[in-house]
């Protein structure tokens, strides 16, 4: 299937779509995480990837930024296992200080800690990600918060098109979510997606959304909204597809998040654009 080419951040909005072949999945086991009696990380957490002073400093910063309230709220969003409880704002603040460091990102991901993995998605170099590395990482994504941040990273990588093609067809809940999440993130960020991928995605969403797993179903609905609100050529098709699909039920658990209606969101976006165009003409 034809796929995308995702450009560097400075040039991505001007790039043209290209075709590429999807490389085979490489099965790898996650690196073990060393913990103390309180579940916190030791330095040298991964036996597979050596740690560094930068890693130790970053883990210390994550621990310091975490709060008990955020740790308590984490399970409401499906976050299990080790978590420092770092807010999105604090994660971005730490990422700005770290900047781009792919070796560090690999070390952070190998810990298995939720916040460390979230930070890894913010500091990894999208150009350095390999297909086998991405296929390993996606199998370790176990909640929608991490899935969406990971998808945003992959959307900026040269592997985006091949991962859309592969992951959207996966039966695994969060792997499928990531596949459709790449579509959402790429379109919102102005990355060009090869039309054949969007066409296939719309067809699959209509066929399979109601039979897909909970968070994959939500990701498919969000992708349809992104197509309808970001691609004017496919707006009507996305709108009509959403109309035929009808209400998409997603169990939000105790998160307090609301389900988005695709028809309503696409309609609202179209009305907003018409209003903006009218105001520009009148001025």
Could you tell me the radius of gyration in angstroms?
Answer: 19 Å
What share of the residues does DSSP label as strand, in percent?
Answer: under 5%
Q: Tell me the series of helices and strands, N- to C-terminal.
A: HHHHHHHHHHHHH
Number of strands: 0
User: What class do helices, strands and sheet pairing give?
Assistant: mainly alpha
Low-pLDDT runs of 5+ residues are 1-40, 42-47
CATH class of the largest domain: Mainly Alpha
Number of helices: 13
**Taking all residues together, what is the mean pLDDT?**
84
Largest sheet: none
Termini separation comes to: 45 Å
Describe the structure in brief.
By secondary structure, this protein is mainly α.
Structure explained in plain terms:
It is a single chain. The chain is mostly helical. It folds into two domains: 42-125, no CATH class; 158-278, Alpha Horseshoe (Serine Threonine Protein Phosphatase 5, Tetratricopeptide repeat), CATH 1.25.40. 55% of the residues lie in helices and 0% in strands. It has 13 helices and no strands. The protein has helices spanning 53-65, 68-73, 88-98, 102-110, 114-123, 131-138, 144-154, 160-167, 173-188, 195-208, 214-230, 235-245, 262-282. Helix 1 runs antiparallel to helix 3, helix 9 runs parallel beside helix 11 and helix 11 (214-230) packs parallel to helix 13. It is globular and about 55 Å long. The N and C termini lie far apart (45 Å). The model is unreliable at 1-40 and 42-47 (pLDDT under 50).
């Amino acid at each position: 299937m034809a796929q995308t080419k995702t450009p560097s951040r400075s040039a991505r909005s001007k790039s043209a779509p290209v075709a590429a072949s999807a490389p085979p999945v490489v099965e790898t086991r996650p690196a073990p995480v060393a913990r103390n009696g309180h579940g916190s990380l030791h330095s040298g957490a991964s036996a597979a990837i050596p740690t560094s002073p930068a890693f130790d400093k970053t883990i210390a910063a994550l621990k310091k930024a975490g709060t008990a309230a955020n740790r308590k709220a984490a399970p409401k969003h499906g976050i299990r296992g080790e978590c420092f409880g770092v807010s999105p704002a604090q994660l971005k603040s730490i990422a700005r200080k770290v900047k781009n460091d792919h070796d560090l990102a690999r070390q952070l991901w190998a810990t298995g800690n939720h916040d460390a993995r979230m930070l890894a998605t913010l500091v990894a170099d999208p150009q350095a990600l390999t297909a086998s590395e991405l296929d390993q990482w996606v199998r370790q994504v176990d909640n929608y918060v991490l899935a969406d941040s990971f998808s945003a990273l992959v959307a900026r990588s040269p592997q985006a098109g091949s991962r859309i093609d592969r992951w959207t067809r996966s039966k695994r809940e969060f792997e499928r979510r990531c596949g459709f999440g790449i579509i959402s993130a790429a379109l919102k960020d102005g990355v060009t997606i090869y039309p054949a991928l969007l066409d296939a995605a719309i067809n699959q969403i209509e066929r399979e959304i109601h039979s897909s797993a909970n968070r994959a179903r939500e990701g498919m609905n969000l992708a349809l909204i992104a197509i309808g609100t970001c691609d004017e050529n496919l707006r009507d098709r996305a709108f009509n597809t959403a109309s035929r699909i009808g209400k998409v039920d997603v169990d939000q658990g105790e998160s307090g998040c609301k389900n988005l209606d695709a028809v309503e969101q696409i309609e609202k976006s179209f009305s907003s654009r018409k209003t903006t165009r009218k105001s520009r003409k009148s001025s």
